[in-house]
Amino acid sequence: MGSTDSKLNFRKAVIQLTTKTQPVEATDDAFWDQFWADTTTTVQDVFALVPAAEIRAVREESPSNLATLCYKAVEKLVQGAESGCPTEREKQVILNCTCILSRILPYIFEDQDWRGFFWSTVPGAGRAGLDDDEGARPLAESLLLAIADLLFCPDFTVHSHRRGPDSVENMQSIDSCEYIWEAGVGFAQSPPLNYIHDLNRTELLRLLLTCFSEAMYLPSSTDNTVLNPWVTFFCSTENRHALPLFTSLLNVVCAYDPVGYGIPYNHLLFSDYREQLVEQAVQILIVTLEHDGGVPHRPPSPSSLEEHESAGPENLFVNYLSRIHREEDFDFVLKGLARLLTNPLTQTYLPNSTKKIQFHQELLVLFWKLCDFNKKFLFFVLKSSDVLDILVPILFYLNDARADQSRVGLMHIGVFILLLLSGERNFGVRLNKPYSVHVPMDIPVFTGTHADLLIVVFHKIITTGHQRLQPLFDCLLTIVVNVSPYLKSLSMVAANKLLHLLEAFSTSWFLFSVAQNHHLVFFLLEAFNNIIQYQFDGNCNLVYAIIRKRNVFHQLANLPSDPAAIQKALQRKRKSPDVISRTGSQETVSMEGSHPAVPAEPGTLKTSLVAIPGIEKLTEKSQVSEDGTMVSVPKTGRSQTAQSDQHAVVGTSDTESNSGRDNEVSGRSTDVFYTEAEMERRPLSSASSTSFWAPTPEWALSWKCKLPLQTIMRLLQVLVPQVEKICIDKGLTDESEILKFLQHGTLVGLLPVPHPILIRKYQANAGTAMWFRTYMWGVVYLRNVDPPIWYDTDVRLFEIQKM
User: Fold this and answer.
1) Fewest Cβ atoms nearer than 10 Å: which of 268, 451, 454, 497?
2) From residue 526, how far is each of 427, 530, 712 by CA, in Å?
3) Which segments show compositional bias classed as Polar residues (predicted)?
4) How far is CA 444 from CA 116, 214, 441, 561, 609, in A?
C-alpha cells in the first residue's frame, strides 16, 4: 500500500509542476521535496510517471521550474556526496534524484537552447564552506563530481572499512583506490558481492551514461577536435576518482562469469544484478574511451603518474588503458573478454539452461579500443593461440548476422577487428592451429584449421549475405591476402571456396559492371600468389583446385576488352547462369546443432550508420623485409600505377575513394551469386552506378595488363602436363592419388622470383572515427530499453529505423 501511495504522491507532484504557470521558488523545500524525500520509486516508475510530453511542456512553458528541478536534484546529490548518506532515507533521496535526472536530461539535450544550461553557473549555488571560485562551478561539473564521489560511498556503493559502529568515514578524505569494486588489474582483493551496492552503482552509472549522451543530439561530424564536454571533464584530473573508477569498471566487466557455478537454469531462478552493472560498466568504458582528449595519442612516457596527469586535458581513461603492461593483467582482461564473447556460443544438452549475455557488441568495441590504444596488449593477444578464442566468436557473430540488416554494424566491427589483427604476422601464423571446437554454424562441415574456418565463413558472407554488406568485400579479401603468406595447409573445402569466389568475380559482366569490381580479382590473385610462392609445400589442395579451375585463369588472361565485347558482356548480365552449380556432397551438410542465418523480425529497430571509407583509405601498405620487419610503402599517385612491379599495384584504386557512397546502396553488384530466377526478384545494385559510369576499352586495358597471373600461369604450365600424364599412365580417377603426387612435387627454380610480401595494415582516419562514434551510440541507444532512456527523443547523430 505504501508503495502505491508513494507513486500517487510522486505523480501529484509531477502534475503540480506541469500545471504551475508561476515560477516556484528554489527555497520552497516543501514543494520540491515531494519529488524525492517521501517517495520510494524505481527508475521504471519514474519513466512511467513522468511522460515525455509533460517534460517538454514544462521546458517550453515553465522553463524556470524545470531549471530549478534540475538544480535542486543536483544539489541533493552534492549534499549526499558530502555527507556520505549515513541514513537509509538519504540513500533513497539520492536514488530518486538519480532517476529523475536520468529521465529529464535527454529532453534538455534535444533542445539547442537548453544544451548550455548545465554548463552555466547558478547564482548563489556554491557549495557551503567553499570559496567563490569553487562555488561558481557549472552545474554539470558539480553533478559529475557528485556521481564520482557517490560511486565510492561506503555502505551505499562500496563496502565500509569502518573499525567500529561509531566511527564514520569522511567522504572528503576517503582513498577510493582502497574501494575498487573487483579484483583484477591493479587490485588483488575481491570484495564480497552485495546486490544492493550493485543496484545503486547501476543507477548512478545509468545517470552518468545519460550525461555523456549529449553526443547523440549533435549531427555527425568528422571533426574529431570537437570533444564531448561531459566526458572530457569526467576523465580529467578534476575527477580524483578517475583511476579507481576506470579500474573498477574494467575489472567488473572482465571478472564477470554469467554461468556462475554452472547450475542449469539458475538464471531463471535468481536475478543477476551483476549483469546489469556489467552492461552499464562496459557502455561507460566504450563511451569514455571514444576520445583520447583531442591531442595525438602518445605512447606512455616513463614519467610519473603525477607528471603525466598535469599535462592538460588528456583523457585519463585512455591514459590508464594505454599504460597497462603487466602480463597477468593482459591475461585477466583477454580471458575475461574471451569468456564473455564465447558465452552465447555455449552448447548444452538442456535447451536454454545457461544464461546468454546480450552485450557482445559493446565487448567487441572494448576489445577494439584495447588493441588500438595499447599496442602491448595487441602483441600479447597475438603471441599465443589465445587470439583464436576471440576469432571464433567473431566469426560466429559474422556468420549469424549476415542475413540480418539490423545487425550490419556488428558485421562491420567484427570485420574491422579482423582487419586490424591481420596486419600482424603472428595472426596469420596462429590461424594454422587445427580447428576442433566446432561451434555450431550453418557452414559446410570440414576438417582443417582456423584459416579454413575464416575462409569458409567469409565465403558464406559474400555469397549469402544481404546487399548492404557489399562495401565490406574489399575488407574481407584484404584480410585473406594479409594472412595468405602464412597459411601452411588449406583444406579442400576452403580451397574450393576461394576458387569459387574468383570464378564468380572474374565473369566479364561482373568485371564491367562497376569501376571497382576488378579489385576483388586482384586481391584473390595476390592471395593465390602468396600461398604458391611462400607455402607451396603444404597446399596441394589449393594447387589441385587451381588446376581443376585452370579455365578461369585462362579466361582472365584472355579477357576481351573491345567495345563490342564489353557491350555483349553487359547485355548477358541478367541472363547469367547460376555459378554455384558444383557443390560437393560434403558442402551441403551444415554443422550439427546449427541454425540458418535469418533476417531481422519485422518491426526490429536499427540505427543508421555513416559510410565507411574505401579500403585504400582504411589501410596503408607495408612490405615485409627479409628480417621480418615491416617497411611502409609510400602511396603512389595515379600516374605512377603503371610501374613494372605488378605486385606492388595489386589493389591500387583506379578510381577516387568510395567513401562518399551510402551504406544503403553500394556500387557493386553481387547478383553473380544468384540463379536467373533469383536475379529477377533482386534489384540490381549496380544500376545506380552504371547510369553515370560506363566501361571503356582503355579503362579495361589499364588494369587487365596488371593482372598478376605470371606465377599461376607458370604453375599451370609445369604441373598440368604432369598431372594429365600421370592420370593417363596410371588410369587415375581418384583425387587422393593426384593430391599425393602434388604433395611431393616441387616448383623450386621454376617459378618467377618470389615477390615481397605486401601487408595492408589498418590505419585510423576521420571517416572510421565517425563511423565508430555513430555505431557505438547506436548500440547504446538500442540496448537501453528498460527504461527506454532516449526513446522518442530528437536524436540527431543517427536515424532510428524500423525493419
Assistant:
1) 268
2) 18, 6, 10
3) 582-591, 637-658
4) 57, 46, 9, 37, 32
